[in-house]
Amino acid sequence: MQYLATTTAPATLETDCIVVAVFEHSELSSSASTLNKLSDGNISRIITRGDITGKPGQTLLLQDVQGITSPRVLLVGCGKKGETSENNYISAITAMATVLSASAIRHATSCLAEIDVQSRPLVWKVRQTAISTEAVLYKYTQTKSDVKPQDFPLESICFFDESNATQAALSGQAISNGMTLARELSNLPGNICTPSYLAQQAIELSNRFDAVTTTVLDEAEMADLGMGSLLSVSRGSREPAKLITMSYKGAGDARPVVLVGKGLTFDAGGISLKPSQAMDEMKYDMCGAASVFGTISAIAELNLPINVVGVVPSSENLPDGDANKPGDVVTSMAGQTIEILNTDAEGRLILCDALTYSARFEPEVVIDIATLTGAIIVALGSQASGLMANNQQLADQLLQAGNDSYDRVWQLPIWDDYQQQLDSNFADIANIGGKEAGSVTAACFLSRFTKDFNWAHLDIAGTAWKGGKAKGATGRPVPLLVQFLLNHIAHK
Ligand code: BES
Ligand code: MN
Ligand code: ZN
């Protein structure tokens, strides 16, 4: 899919379909009103018949409207004029994309970005359109044998705006491409998407973009670095662990933002085996890693003036004769010993060594992204990702980026008071903190390894994929991370 921009007014546009907004009480948007005049009131007459009342997400596809240069006009309901909420807008553009993809339309021009959505700027409306359209169009095919090409695939959406939406369209394009990459990696099954496969994909990324370089450490190299915690997880698997580093250089020798993505390509729980129900979904335990891939792809596509290092510790977590056992004590790269009371709390075991490793990049900030706890789903559902940080300024920037991108986060505390839950009788720290505040104690565990830098943790277990009938990865939090980096550059 291509996202483009035009300043050509709807009156003279020649495209397969022009998309315009209509509101409740038969009110028209500015472009709808232009088309209405050109067609001698045709659009108003159709609305008066009541086939579309302007409710958010309603659509009506008109053919051969007299006086209009394009063969089709798609009317999209956007609610009460002046009161379109963000969610109304997302319903409207999702409905638009659904109609466009189900028709023979290949190229459409959308005038929906002209309407007021709270006080959202043009760029927000354009990016949301790209994100929502991609969510409608995305179809997983990688391991299906009956894939038929679509007869009339939608090829482009052009944004009409007098002030020229080219930059906005480019960013929407890059973000949605990044989300698609994240979805593709995430949806792949664990027998294909192994740690070695992820490493290969990281090399592909560096082949695609000159500004990206990839290095991959194998288990022997990790052992030399003393990553006893990370390696204890992969001991139970026949797939060797990888530590993948993708470095994007767009700003000389500026200190980088380091993104650390949890890359468990399958998490069975290990000896603390998970229940079998929905265990297939634990192939998604690498969605943090996938979001790092997607973000690096987006910023490389946009040539952003920033340095970003993506660090992906990748392993499987399986039961085995050589796997971690409850009660085992391992030594992390930082030298702290860890008592593994539950082998299913493996994310923090691989992340702690990756976080320690991150210090060598002299980061400005480090953000880890992880499907870390089931408890965050209980707390926040699938709307917001959990945010925890050792620096409030960084937390505020992520909250802001969440609000700006509408890929939202909600902060939880990591007060010292929680740290005692991680006390161990046999090591410096235990890997679980009991049944209270599971997401917080998981972050508290990580905080023991991030004292030397500004750090934030995103728990995306509830937001990175959908279960049930529409099971599949969401591509989150790529929009959040790209927005954070864009804001970071703007405030320099
Ligand atoms: N990958 C899981 C977290 C998870 C669970 C994500 C369910 C999505 C859905 C993680 O490795 C895990 O197993 N966490 C445990 C921690 C517990 C043993 C302290 C959990 O949340 O149950
Ligand atoms: Mn686990
Ligand atoms: Zn896990």
**How far do the termini sit from each other?**
32 Å
Strand content: 15-25%
Number of domains: 2
Mean pLDDT: 98
What would you give as the CATH superfamily of the largest domain?
Answer: Zn peptidases
Gross morphology: elongated
**Low-pLDDT residue intervals, each spanning 5 or more residues:** none
Approximately how much helix is present in the residues?
25-40%
Biggest sheet architecture: 9 strands, mixed
Assigned CATH architecture of the largest domain:
3-Layer(aba) Sandwich
Bound molecules: ligand BES, manganese (II) ion, zinc ion
Helical stretch count? 14
Q: What is the CATH domain class of the largest domain?
A: Alpha Beta
Kindly report the CATH topology of the largest domain.
Answer: Aminopeptidase
- Helix- and strand-based class? alpha/beta
Question: Over all CA atoms, what is the radius of gyration?
Answer: 24 Å
Number of strands: 20
